[in-house]
């Protein structure tokens, strides 16, 4: 069996930056075992699998996401990559409806500025008073505060230097499964040409679910954006995920929804044989 595959760098307009995701569209679902094997073979943080919804809506798709280790409940950057592929196939298309078991139905639109905007549930984290010992042992810098939601522990630091410098012990952080770990702080710096002031920065560690450090994580910003919106007193924020590849996310918090936008760029188009 031959399947078309696209690899797209998400949350960037530059190849080799942002977070790469593979996208595979099929008429019917492949078996879970085959999807997991493909994701492992791709060895990207996520592979998104899409099947057109049987409801008759030509622009409605079911979506599932697989890391090399396991199926993921929710992935923002691979959704952005999937929407980019669909928009590229139909230049007149401006809106896509996706549905996923853990997220429900959500809309993705192509904006006039070329960015793709995703509409996700608000997953603002709550304060953790009893910090897990594994979290404290797994990070080289002691948190100022810790919050959590269903996806991850949110480690708050006072400055960018700590976010950039913190080291992790993956074996200890694995013990926090099913939650991962995001470290974050209010931003102090702008991009190279000083035109874009960030509101907050982060890094995301996920040894329990996908690997070492994720390049750019759309899903975690459904928690980061409302957290920083509350703390900074503003609902429109620009976020930078400070991995080695880096990525920029525009975030808007509106009640129980978080809108996350970004660019994407094509890296690969090809065929896999399975």
In short:
By secondary structure, the protein is of the alpha+beta class. It has six helices and 18 strands. The longest helix has 14 residues, at 76-89.
Write a structural description:
The chain has 274 residues and is of the alpha+beta class. The chain is 20% helix and 39% strand. The longest helix is centred in the first third of the chain and has 14 residues, at 76-89. It starts with a strand and ends with a strand.
Count every helix, treating DSSP H or I runs of 4 or more residues as helices. Answer: 6
Termini separation: 5 Å
Q: Please give the largest β-sheet.
A: 18 strands, mixed
**In the CATH classification, which architecture of the largest domain applies?**
Roll
What is the number of E strands?
18
CATH class of the largest domain: Alpha Beta
Strand percentage, roughly? Answer: 35-45%
């Amino acid at each position: 069996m031959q399947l078309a595959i696209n690899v797209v760098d998400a949350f960037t307009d530059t190849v080799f930056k942002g977070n790469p995701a593979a996208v595979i569209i099929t008429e019917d679902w492949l078996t879970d075992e085959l999807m997991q094997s493909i994701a492992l073979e791709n060895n990207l943080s996520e592979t998104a699998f899409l099947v057109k919804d049987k409801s008759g809506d030509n622009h409605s798709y079911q979506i599932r996401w697989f890391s090399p280790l396991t199926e993921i409940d929710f992935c923002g950057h691979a959704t952005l990559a999937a929407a980019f592929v669909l928009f590229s196939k139909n230049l007149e298309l401006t809106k896509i409806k996706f549905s996923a078991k853990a997220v429900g139905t959500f809309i993705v639109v192509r904006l006039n500025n070329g960015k793709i905007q995703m509409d996700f549930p608000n997953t603002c984290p709550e304060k953790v008073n009893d910090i897990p010992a594994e979290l404290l042992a797994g990070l080289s810098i002691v948190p100022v505060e810790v919050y959590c939601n269903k996806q991850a522990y949110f480690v708050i630091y006072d400055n960018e230097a700590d976010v950039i410098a913190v080291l992790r012990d993956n074996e200890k952080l694995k013990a926090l499964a099913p939650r991962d770990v995001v470290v974050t702080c209010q931003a102090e710096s702008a991009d190279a040409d000083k035109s874009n002031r960030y509101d907050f920065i982060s890094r995301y560690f996920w040894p329990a679910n996908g690997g070492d450090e994720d390049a750019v994580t759309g899903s975690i910003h459904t928690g980061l954006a409302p957290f920083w919106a509350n703390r900074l007193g503003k609902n429109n924020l620009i976020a930078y995920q400070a991995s080695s590849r880096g990525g920029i996310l525009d975030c808007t918090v509106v009640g129980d929804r978080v809108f996350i936008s970004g660019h994407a760029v094509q890296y690969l188009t090809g065929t896999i044989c399975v």
